[in-house]
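Need tokens for this chain, all 227 residues.
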Amino acid sequence: MAIWFSLCGAILVLAYLLGSTPTGYTVVRILKGIDIREVGSGSTGATNVLRTLGKGPGAFVLGIDCLKGVLVIFLVYWLFNFAQTQNWISSTVNLEIWLSWMVTLAGLSAILGHSKSIFLGFSGGKSVATSLGVLLAMNWQVALATVGVFAVVVAISRIVSLSSIAGAIAVSIFMVILHQPLPYILFGIIGGLYVVWRHSSNIERLVAGTEPKLGQKLEPAEPEQTA
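Here are the structure tokens for all 227 residues:
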């Protein structure tokens, strides 16, 4: 069991590091030679990349950040399969319960890494795309339902941040409706609240009526929030 616990800890560290991979920062640095944290909202996420470089780079960053979340969950499944073949798990261990908790913890680690990247001095994005990737790997029905909420809100409001907040709140609701395990429901609650908190500056602008809509730019850049 000592090997098993060590592997679980290593997976959580890898999940954080994978989530920390600074996709948006790297793309903007390569294509435009600037630090995206000094542009627009200061976020390294896909929305700020979209405003800075356009649809192509924005879509690329969105896809890669989403893929990070998917890979983290697949890493957990691989660990469980490998550990079983090596007989590293005691027969008294309930694998179904262990799996759901490890998926949840690894997903939260990746989300934390995306927004508090060790490679960027613990700054980063708003964790929306990486959260979506985690959801897709956890339960695609919940993920698609959440995307549906996002799409409806963005179609009506044309405001990405408001749509992201609505989606973050909807996740835990869909987890309950679709009878997901308790760890997944907790992921929806904790992850959703974290994403909403990461949008605190957006919420202030929404209240003030200054939050930009799709196609508009936000000037000047705002400093990245720290925990």
